[in-house]
From TrEMBL:
<protein>
    <submittedName>
        <fullName>Cytochrome C oxidase Cbb3</fullName>
    </submittedName>
</protein>
<dbReference type="GO" id="GO:0022904">
    <property type="term" value="P:respiratory electron transport chain"/>
</dbReference>
<dbReference type="GO" id="GO:0016020">
    <property type="term" value="C:membrane"/>
</dbReference>
<dbReference type="InterPro" id="IPR036927">
    <property type="entry name" value="Cyt_c_oxase-like_su1_sf"/>
</dbReference>
<dbReference type="GO" id="GO:0015990">
    <property type="term" value="P:electron transport coupled proton transport"/>
</dbReference>
<keyword id="KW-0679">Respiratory chain</keyword>
<feature type="transmembrane region" description="Helical">
    <location>
        <begin position="122"/>
        <end position="141"/>
    </location>
</feature>
<dbReference type="Pfam" id="PF00115">
    <property type="entry name" value="COX1"/>
</dbReference>
<keyword id="KW-0812">Transmembrane</keyword>
<keyword id="KW-1133">Transmembrane helix</keyword>
<feature type="transmembrane region" description="Helical">
    <location>
        <begin position="171"/>
        <end position="193"/>
    </location>
</feature>
<feature type="transmembrane region" description="Helical">
    <location>
        <begin position="44"/>
        <end position="60"/>
    </location>
</feature>
<dbReference type="GO" id="GO:0004129">
    <property type="term" value="F:cytochrome-c oxidase activity"/>
</dbReference>
<dbReference type="InterPro" id="IPR000883">
    <property type="entry name" value="Cyt_C_Oxase_1"/>
</dbReference>
<keyword id="KW-0472">Membrane</keyword>
<dbReference type="InterPro" id="IPR023616">
    <property type="entry name" value="Cyt_c_oxase-like_su1_dom"/>
</dbReference>
<feature type="transmembrane region" description="Helical">
    <location>
        <begin position="12"/>
        <end position="32"/>
    </location>
</feature>
């Protein structure tokens, strides 16, 4: 087995990882200093800012889970599922979609088909991912507490099926959140398809400015 001192060192170094992770995210957010009004008008910037925010959430959760007392509660529970998905869906996917919305006009020489569709996608997916990871956070904590509960004789207080029954409402909320996020992905795919095939062509000079946007 891994010696206890080595586990402790691993926990310490994991917690220290918060510093470079948050440093890069704060650098990204401070780039907007004096230009925050653009968040209201640019759905692309909305995606980037929210992606950076989710990056901060995700890189805070990970190191905290490396603390042994926290890991003892959270390990193998749905908390981990929530952690992974707020990183993948909230951070990585949002940043990739922002990058693709920025690149599409430059690659296809056409403006983005619909800015309003981008906004709709953003809010639907934001609601979806928030429902997804918060339901899994609550489910994970509930799971961990039930698994650790004992009666006066030292026996487990709950069977496995007891935990599954209690968590069913949270799984339903997760399904709703995941469905909303999937709907947003279909809107994204449709917007990109129409950008490639039906949107107004733009001149090279227009591409030197911010990504051209449609209606």
């Amino acid at each position: 087995t891994v010696p206890d001192w080595m586990q402790t060192m691993g926990s310490v170094f994991s917690v220290v990882l918060i510093l470079p992770s948050w440093g890069s995210a704060i650098n990204m957010l401070l780039t907007m200093k004096g230009e925050w009004q653009q968040v209201a008008s640019s759905p692309l910037i909305k995606f980037m800012i929210l992606a950076s925010t989710f990056y901060m959430f995700s890189t805070l959760e990970g190191p905290i889970q490396a603390i042994k007392s926290v890991n003892a509660l959270a390990h193998f529970t749905d908390w981990i599922v929530g952690h992974v998905h707020d990183g993948v869906l909230g951070w990585v996917a949002f940043m990739i979609m922002a990058a693709l919305f920025h690149m599409a006009p430059r690659v296809f020489k056409r403006e983005i088909y619909s800015k309003s569709l981008m906004n709709t996608q953003f809010w639907i997916q934001t609601l979806g991912v928030v429902l997804y990871f918060t339901s899994m956070w609550i489910a994970g904590i509930t799971q961990g507490m039930m698994w650790r509960a004992h009666d006066e004789f030292g026996n487990l207080a709950y069977s496995f099926i007891d935990t599954v029954t209690v968590l069913h409402p949270y799984y339903t909320i997760r399904a709703v959140g995941g469905t909303l996020y999937l709907v947003g992905m279909f809107l994204f795919a449709y917007n990109m398809y129409k950008t490639m095939t039906s949107s107004r062509r733009v001149e090279e000079s227009e591409l030197q400015n911010a990504s051209p946007m449609g209606a």
